[in-house]
């Protein structure tokens, strides 16, 4: 990614975080990045495109951080939950814009679903995984994201759910996933490798 493009994406993320997707425009994003408005269109077709780039960068940042977490399953699970909740809190406005656009905009919804498939592959639950493993991973992914958003938005607090209890629940679900037995290789895979 070019330096100009990187700065535009970072500025878009900040502006959307601050003002929401519908509260900002391409001129504001370009100026926030330190460029003339015309520079925006040398790198992006429209606000949709830069929003999708900002979301992809957000996902990449999250997964890079998660990939660096080590330790036993319980330690890793607590660290995963802590980071995800912090990341969702930090980017609460960007996440709210994403949720609204996924519900109303087919282009964003399609992109978001492709990102979901990429996330599942990173969890070891891509198309080659068993349907059961893929289902467990997909449900965990949605549960962690929804609860992290609920904590970030204050929704769980408004429902009388203590944050520590929500975090402990998520950590227990992550531990369960991390300790799933590895699937058996497909029949004939051992002979094919010889």
Could you characterize the architecture of this molecule?
This protein starts with a helix and ends with a helix. The chain contains eleven helices and no strands. The longest helix is centred in the C-terminal third of the chain and has 23 residues, at about 130-155. The protein has a domain at about 45-180: Tetracycline Repressor, domain 2 (Orthogonal Bundle). It has helices at about 5-20, 25-30, 35-45, 45-65, 75-90, 90-105, 105-120, 130-155, 155-160, 165-180, 190-194. By secondary structure, it is mostly helical.
Rg, Å, rounded: 19 Å
CATH architecture identity of the domain at 47-181: Orthogonal Bundle
Helix content: over 70%
- Shape summary: globular
Strand percentage lies at under 5%
Q: Which structural class fits the helix and strand makeup?
A: mainly alpha
Terminal Cα span: 41 Å
Under the CATH scheme, which class of the domain at 47-181? Answer: Mainly Alpha
Oligomer: single chain
Low-confidence stretches: 189-194
**How would you name the CATH homologous superfamily of the domain at 47-181?**
Tetracycline Repressor, domain 2
Taking all residues together, what is the mean pLDDT? 92
**How many β-strand stretches?**
0
CATH topology of the domain at 47-181: Tetracycline Repressor, domain 2
Q: Number of DSSP helices?
A: 11
* Main sheet overview: none
Q: Can you write the helix and strand succession as a string? A: HHHHHHHHHHH
